[in-house]
Backbone:
């Protein structure tokens, strides 16, 4: 996270918010106002109500992140990314091409939610 510059980007853009998985706990500790990690598991001797609250909070965050996790998983299923044997210099280009294909497939996939056709203005129009 530090070598890839994620922490530096969060410092430069304080209005950015992110929901991450348990692997980024350190990032959530460093930037508590910007990064939300899953709640920590309560101790074994914690009251039952606290354990139920933890389970519900974890379920809510998982529900919000599931579409991201499915997209990441779908990319990993593509054979060229499973065992990349090409040159290191061309990996980024290969990954970007596969990500575009995955995105196109996901966009064509039917959804259970009804998409809104309401116009949403980006900025206020003043006359």
Residues:
């Amino acid at each position: 996270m530090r070598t890839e510059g994620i922490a530096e980007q969060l410092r430069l853009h304080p209005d950015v918010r992110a929901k991450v998985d348990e692997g980024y706990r350190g990032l959530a500790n460093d930037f508590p106002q910007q990064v939300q990690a899953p709640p920590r598991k309560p101790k074994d001797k914690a009251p039952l109500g606290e354990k139920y609250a933890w389970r519900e909070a974890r379920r809510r965050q998982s529900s919000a992140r599931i579409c991201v996790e499915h997209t990441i998983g779908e990319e990993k299923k593509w054979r060229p990314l499973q065992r990349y044997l090409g040159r290191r210099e061309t990996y980024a280009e290969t990954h970007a091409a596969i990500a575009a294909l995955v995105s196109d497939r996901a966009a064509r996939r039917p959804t259970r939610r009804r998409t809104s056709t309401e116009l949403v203005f980006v900025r206020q129009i003043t006359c």
In short: The longest strand covers residues 18-19.
